[in-house]
């Protein structure tokens, strides 16, 4: 287990997880967080490439939506009880 804020995943890890999950890049971003708001990412996130966004959030774990659970063939992002119940 890894503490995302202290040991933030790399850009390449995010890109791999995105492929497995099949989700938009924004799913990995803590859009309710203070840093997100301070940086004005709401206004720029849509124009950023996936790689650029993942490079940015890999530099600051507070920008990452948590928790993230990664398996061989799945990635759960954030805690949504129904998704977690269906998986387990």
Offer a concise description of the structure.
With 88 residues, the protein is mostly helical. It contains four helices and two strands; from the N terminus they run αααββα.
Low-confidence regions: none
Query: How many strands appear in the DSSP assignment?
Result: 2
- Biggest pleated-sheet summary: 2 strands, antiparallel
* Second CATH tier, the architecture: 3-Layer(aba) Sandwich
- Average pLDDT, all residues: 96
Estimate what percentage of residues fall within beta strands. 5-15%
**SSE pattern, N- to C-terminal:** HHHEEH
Query: Looking at the structure, what is the overall shape?
Result: globular
Helical fraction equals 25-40%
CATH topology category name: Glutaredoxin
Decide which structural class fits the backbone. Answer: mainly alpha
What Rg is obtained from the alpha carbons, in whole angstroms? 13 Å
Give the end-to-end Cα distance, rounded to a whole number of Å: 18 Å
Name of the level-1 CATH class: Alpha Beta
Count of helical regions: 4
CATH homologous superfamily grouping: Glutaredoxin
